[in-house]
Amino acid sequence: MIKLIVAVGRNGEIGLEGRLPWEGTFIEDQQWYLNNTLNAVRVGCSGSITTIDDKRAFYIVSARNIVAPGSLGIYNWRLMKPHEILCDVQAKHPTNDVFVVGGVPWYEASAHAVEQLLITRINGSYTHDRAINMDILLQNRKCMKTWEGRTTPDLCFEIWE
Ligand SMILES: NC(=O)c1ccc[n+]([C@@H]2O[C@H](COP(=O)([O-])OP(=O)(O)OC[C@H]3O[C@@H](n4cnc5c(N)ncnc54)[C@H](OP(=O)(O)O)[C@@H]3O)[C@@H](O)[C@H]2O)c1
C-alpha cells in the first residue's frame, strides 16, 4: 500500500533546523513512525531522510544532482509525476508498504497519490521553519480512525483514506 506519514503541530509545523520542532519529546510518536516504516520503503527529500539515523530502505526525490549514500535510487520530481514515482517504487517492492516521508513540497505534491495518510497531531505550537498545509493533504479524504496517545493526551493519531 502507498501511504504518507507525518507528525504535525497545531499550526502545520513539521520542522525546525533540520529536525522536528518538538525533537525528542514524544517517544510514542517516534515508536509509531518506526513501527510503521520498519519493513517499508520510504520516499522523501534528502533533508527528511537524513534526519532519520537508520539503515532502512529509502529512495530520494530530488531534481539536483546529489549524492545520496545508502539510498536505493533518486527520482527527479521535475521529470516524473508523484504518482509515477510512487507506483514505480511500489512495483519494485510489491510486498512492502511505500511511505511518503516529506519534506513539505513532496508531502503536498504527492498526498493525492497515496492510499492512506497516517497523521499524528501534536497538541502544541512550536517555533518552526517548515509547515505544511493540511488542507492540501486532506482534500477529499475521510478520517477512518482516531485515538489519543497512550502516554500523553497531547498526541492524537489519525488514519485518513
Ligand atoms: N514532522 C514530520 O513528520 C516531518 C517529516 C519529514 C520531515 N520533517 C522535517 O522537515 C524538515 C526537512 O525538510 P526537507 O529538507 O526534507 O524538505 P523541505 O525543505 O521541506 O523541502 C525542500 C526540498 O523539496 C524538494 N522539492 C521541491 N519541490 C518539490 C516537488 N514538487 N516534489 C518533490 N520534491 C520537491 C527539493 O529537493 P531538491 O532541491 O533536492 O530537488 C527541495 O530541496 C526537517 O526539519 C525535518 O525534520 C518533519
Shape by Cα distribution: globular
Kindly give the count of domains: 1
Helix percentage range: 10-25%
CATH evolutionary superfamily: Dihydrofolate Reductase, subunit A
Cα radius of gyration in angstroms? 15 Å
Strand content: 25-35%
Small molecules held by this entry: NADP nicotinamide-adenine-dinucleotide phosphate
Q: Any idea of the CATH topology?
A: Dihydrofolate Reductase, subunit A
Give me the number of helical elements: 5
Uncertain runs are: none
Task: State the strand order across the main sheet.
Answer: 5-4-3-6-1-7-10-9
Structural class given helices, strands, pairing?
alpha/beta
| CATH structural architecture | 3-Layer(aba) Sandwich
Number of strands: 10
Main β sheet profile: 8 strands, mixed
List the secondary-structure elements in sequence, H or E.
Answer: EEHEHEEHEHEEHEE
Termini separation: 12 Å
Describe the structure.
This protein is 24% helix and 27% strand. It contains 5 helices and 10 strands, in the order ββαβαββαβαββαββ. The protein has helices at residues 27-37, 46-49, 82-92, 104-110, 134-138, and strands spanning 2-8, 13-15, 41-44, 58-61, 74-75, 98-100, 116-122, 130-131, 143-148, 155-160. It has an 8-stranded mixed sheet, sandwiched between helices. The termini are close together. It binds NADP nicotinamide-adenine-dinucleotide phosphate.
What is the structure about, briefly put?
24% of the residues lie in helices and 27% in strands. By secondary structure, the chain is α/β, with parallel strands linked by helices. The model has no long low-confidence stretch (mean pLDDT 95).
